[in-house]
Each structure stands twice: as structure tokens, then as C-alpha cells.
Design brief:
alpha/beta, Spore Coat Polysaccharide Biosynthesis Protein SpsA, Chain A, eight-stranded mixed beta sheet, 10 helices, 10 strands, disordered C terminus, EC 2.4.-.-
């Protein structure tokens, strides 16, 4: 097989409603480049007919490769699975909701070659299609990350980017269990460029990043790139100590003046204040200890159910579909992957 120039990695979770539009817009762009390519659709444990439709599309689009995970593991872990599977000289990561236009991929590749850079970020120059809440929280997130992690964090640059093989190899060698690629990639220091684009509304379906997952991403970003929360816990402890010291001095002064009276209010407030600060500090410590615990377990962040491909090393089911053996098991995946039961949702 000839060497691939481009690998496009697209994590998907319950994206059946948008798949046809995604393929109809992505394929002409890649075909128009006139270079060998592959599209790796990473099914992140979808509960709808995403996998079945991907397999149907693959019958007419041999460049499409379906990588199905055994359960829902989250967007960043699914993206990691796609990056490990990609073999192109250039790798593009893009979501399937078409908010990031596939047409920009050609501009990214041209910019990387003309400017001699290893990374090209798709920067959202216009986000009017997003809600006011979404724009506000995104702006707050990037400002916070630049303050905590460093000035190298790009503004409005999500997971739509093009990377060279050198960058992808470094990413795949990192030992992180829960990487946040929008921070990890710029932290590597590779030469980079930006391509602005207008963010479009979601083509179909519902967002897969509700408030809860946004908060989880923010916590992973903070704990993965900064020890500032631990320092905050230290400062809270010092402030509470000074407050208590002042209360002790005031209590002795009142006792010496003979003006002490039984009072539950001050005691009640002091107990609540100290208890709240202690719980906050324990929670912050718990976030970091949890990451250490996950690292010591060294469990794989994802398991592959099957991987359709034309490469060597694949099993062939009774229906002729080629299936990769999962790296974590010696047993082949089900031959008829279209009839697998629904996978569990992300927890």
C-alpha cells in the first residue's frame, strides 16, 4: 500500500444524524487534494446506529476506516485512539458535527507546507453561531488556562488542527492517562501557524459537550497543567489560621476585660468557616491524588472492539469484514459487529 499523506481522525458519539452530511462534505475535500488519505472514524461507544451507518458508508468509500471502542470513554480518549491508529504524514483531528468546516483542511495543509510548520490550528474567528453562554464560558476557559498553564495556550483553538507525523509520534509516546490535547499540543513547542474560520451551527443532532463534561474538561485541564489549586489550598489554610489567631487574641482580650458572655454565633461561624475550607482543600488534594492513582493502575484508557482496515494483521469475519484483534485481548471481536448490543454511556 502506498504511503498515506493525510489521516483524518474524527471521534464520534451518537452522531448518526449528521454522518451523511459529514461524509458528503469531507470526501470531496480530501479527494480534491489528489493525495493518498484515510479517514478514521472513532466510534466512542455510540448507542445509536452510528457504527452501522459508518460501515455502510465504508462500502462505497474505501478510504473510510471504522475504529469502534468497546465503551464510551470520552472525547479526548477517543481522539487518542484515533491518533494511535493514524499512519499519515499529516494528521487532522476534527469533530463530526460540522461546526468546524472540512474545507479548511486544504488550507491547513497548504499553510503547513508553505510555512514549514508542524502544527496548524483552526482558530474560531467568528463564534456567533454558539450561544452567549457557550462563548462566555469558552473565553473564560482560555483566559484561565493562559493564566495557569502559560501564555502559549492559544485563544479559541479547540481540537480542530493539523499535525505532522513528528508531533503525533511524540503525543503517542506520552504517558498521560487523561490528556487534554488542546493544551498538550501547544505545550510541546513545535512551530505552529493558524488558519481562522467561521464556526458554523451544528449540522444535526445534539451537542455532546453539556455543562457537566465542560466542567470535567476544565478540571482535567487545570490539574493536568498546573499545581495552582494546591497553592490555593495552602493560602486558604494560612488565611484561616490568621483568622483563628485573631479570634483567639480577641477572646483573651475579652476574658481579661471581664466582658465574656456565652455566644454560640461566633463559634458556629468559626466551625462552618474552618470546616468549609478543610473540605475544599481535601477536594483539591483528591483531584491530584485521583490522577496519581489512575497513573499507578496503568489501565488502558480505551479498548478497541474492532478496526476495519486493508492492512495486514486483521481477522476476517464470516461476512468478509476485516477486523483487528483488540490489543488487550487474545480473542477476536464479534464477526458480525453490526449486531452488537448498545454500549454503556460515559460515566
Amino acid at each position: 500500500m502506498s504511503r498515506l499523506t493525510i489521516s483524518v481522525v474524527a471521534p464520534m458519539y451518537d452522531e448518526r444524524a449528521v454522518l451523511d452530511q459529514f461524509a458528503a462534505r469531507l470526501r470531496p475535500v480530501l479527494d480534491g487534494l489528489g493525495e493518498p488519505y484515510e479517514v478514521i472514524a472513532v466510534d466512542d461507544g455510540s448507542r445509536d446506529a452510528t457504527v452501522a451507518r459508518l460501515l455502510q458508508l465504508r462500502a462505497d468509500w474505501p478510504n473510510l476506516r471504522v475504529l469502534s471502542l468497546r465503551r464510551n470513554v470520552g472525547h479526548q480518549a477517543a481522539l487518542s485512539a484515533g491518533l494511535h491508529a493514524a499512519s499519515g504524514d499529516w494528521v487532522v483531528s476534527i469533530d463530526a458535527d460540522l461546526q468546524d468546516p472540512p474545507s479548511v483542511i486544504a488550507e491547513m495543509l497548504a499553510a503547513a507546507r508553505s510555512r514549514g510548520v508542524d502544527v496548524v490550528y483552526g482558530v474560531r474567528a467568528d463564534r456567533r453561531s454558539d450561544s452567549v453562554f457557550k462563548r462566555g464560558t469558552a473565553s473564560l476557559y482560555y483566559r484561565l488556562m493562559r493564566r495557569l498553564a502559560g501564555p502559549w495556550v492559544g485563544d479559541q483553538a479547540g481540537d480542530f488542527r493539523l499535525m505532522s507525523r513528528a508531533v503525533v509520534d511524540v503525543l503517542n509516546d506520552l504517558p498521560e492517562q487523561r490528556p487534554v490535547y488542546r493544551l498538550v499540543v501547544p505545550s510541546l513547542g513545535f512551530a505552529a501557524a493558524e488558519v481562522p474560520y467561521t464556526r458554523a451551527p451544528r449540522a444535526a443532532g445534539e451537542t455532546k459537550y453539556p455543562l457537566g463534561k465542560m466542567i470535567r474538561l476544565t478540571l482535567d485541564s487545570i490539574t493536568g497543567f498546573s499545581a495552582a489549586p494546591l497553592r490555593i489550598a495552602t493560602w486558604l489554610g494560612m488565611i484561616s489560621f490568621l483568622v483563628c489567631l485573631a479570634l483567639i487574641v480577641g477572646g483573651f482580650a475579652a476574658w481579661a476585660a471581664g466582658g465574656t458572655v456565652p455566644g454560640w454565633t461566633s463559634l458556629y461561624i468559626a466551625v462552618l468557616l474552618l470546616g468549609g475550607i478543610q473540605l475544599i482543600c481535601l477536594g483539591l488534594l483528591g483531584e491530584y491524588i485521583g490522577r496519581i492513582y489512575a497513573a499507578t493502575q496503568n489501565r488502558p484508557p480505551y479498548l478497541v472492539a474492532f478496526d476495519t482496515s486493508t492492512d495486514n494483521g486483521f481477522d476476517t469475519g464470516d461476512d468478509g469484514l476485516e477486523l483487528r484483534r483488540s490489543p488487550a485481548t487474545s480473542h477476536p471481536p464479534p464477526a458480525d459487529c453490526r449486531r452488537q448490543p448498545a454500549r454503556q454511556a460515559e460515566v
